[in-house]
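Support reply, case 0932

Customer input (verbatim):
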Amino acid sequence: MNPKLTKSVVALSLGSAVALWSAAPAMAAEPKRGGVLNFVVGSKIPSYDGHAESTFGMIHPIRPFYSLLYRVNPDNPQSPTDFVCDLCYGKVPLLGDEGSEGKRYTFNIRKNIKFHDGTPLTAHDVVATFNKIVAPPEGVRSTRVAMFGMIDSVTAPDDYTVVFDLKYPSGAFVGAVGMPFNFVYAKKDLERKDPAGKDPVYGYKWHQKNINGTGAFSFVQHQPGAFVEGKRHEGYHHHGKPYLDGFKSISAPKMANRVQAIRGDRAAIEFRGFPPKQRDALVNALGDGITVQTSDWNCGLLYTLNHQWGAFKDVRVRRALNLAVDRWKAEKTLSQIAIVKTAAGIVFPSHPLAASKEELQQLEGFWPDIKKSQAAAKALLKEAGHEKLKFTLNNRGVDQPYRYIATWLIGEWKKVGVQVKQAVVPTSQWLGDMRGGTFEGSTDANCQSIVNPLIDVSKYLGSATSNRAQFEDPKLEELYLAMNQSGDPAEQKRIMREFEKITIQDAAHEGLTLWWNKINPHRTYVKGWKIAPSHYLNQHLDQVWLDK
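Our regenerated output:
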């Protein structure tokens, strides 16, 4: 790592807890070719489009079909700065590298790569892809568009060179481009015309229902509600990979079914993770047939209140609901039964830009005296004329940790006189209601891939497409821009605290609960996969092999 990077936030250490334990024999010296990896996924696929979606239900079964410009190093996925080329070749430049001014990034594209339909890949495909992500036309959803405000232009001076010119140097740029959702699409697919002649942006939506990538596996079939199947792409550009003949992603919304699938060897792994009880059950049943990998998880579960609905237009009501929640107690109790672990603010808990416990305890919702907090909540509700507030909380139909968190929240709010009805809905409806603003309150999540707070907190901007609360806050936009343009970690931290105070307390735009804890038990014969602080990373499967 370049020593200059230590001056930038992207190179600050995370202090992530990573562990691997097993009673199994040591792995074989060399990867073996062959076999099909069966894994289970606890959510349905809303669409195939990585640019539009943000759920593991899409990325786990679909990521293996696609390539990225570059990716997190699969051998070192805990690092926020270790990127390796995928479609490009050479070293991935980082802010602070010698000779870099931080405003121009040039990438050389590998030759002789073909999409699965036989179309040659060039720099123009990469440019078309990022133009869709960075500046989508009206009617086209790009979920992470707010992360790319630093980009001025993306161009291809020739068929095998891509140039990103930035408006200003940004510690968020490299991580944003390397996110696993940035599937590279064929320019010709993005330019497809609507056969019916009705949709002027038909090509930009084509990937919602169609797959054509350059990844390690090519698409075989998808039986909705059952499985997705892929087979080895023999023309894959990483020589000698993939090792697997193919994979089968099995849909299993109920956790009990996913656990039983691994126990009965109908599946080898669930990439999202299990809570402690289920981990222990698998270890007790399978002994040295199971390996467990654990990590801190760059995922925080939120509750979102629709600022356009009734009582939630009043900041006093939003502040009251925030004050009513005892996060410090939940940290001890919920972590025993759910995939959650840490009470923290808007930044990954162990990151240097995160608030300390002492700083957090100054914010509403994190006061150490819960009786004081609840009294303040009741007073605000009375002042706002909503002492008998009732509303419906939409909850995602995924068991962990949504059901546990929602049940806990409803119980906490009941203590201050608020009556909440829980409506459990499928993922597609849950997302659709939030995107359309057709909800009162909802569980939500800020689950990002690369651990980079300058990327992660873009979720809390009014300009973000993931702004489910439907608010506008020019001050947050101003602070975010200043934070991205600053190269001084101390200044970034000062700005982050102001950004956090507005988000959590002053405007109560979002309600934070707990950050997650990643626990991945898998069959010991699964080799080559390393846990990351995200359930979105390392899902390309080209390095995975089976020792059986």
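We compared this against your earlier run and they match. Two observations from our side: The chain has two domains: 31-249+525-546, 296-517. The radius of gyration is 23 Å. Please reopen the case if you see a mismatch on your end.
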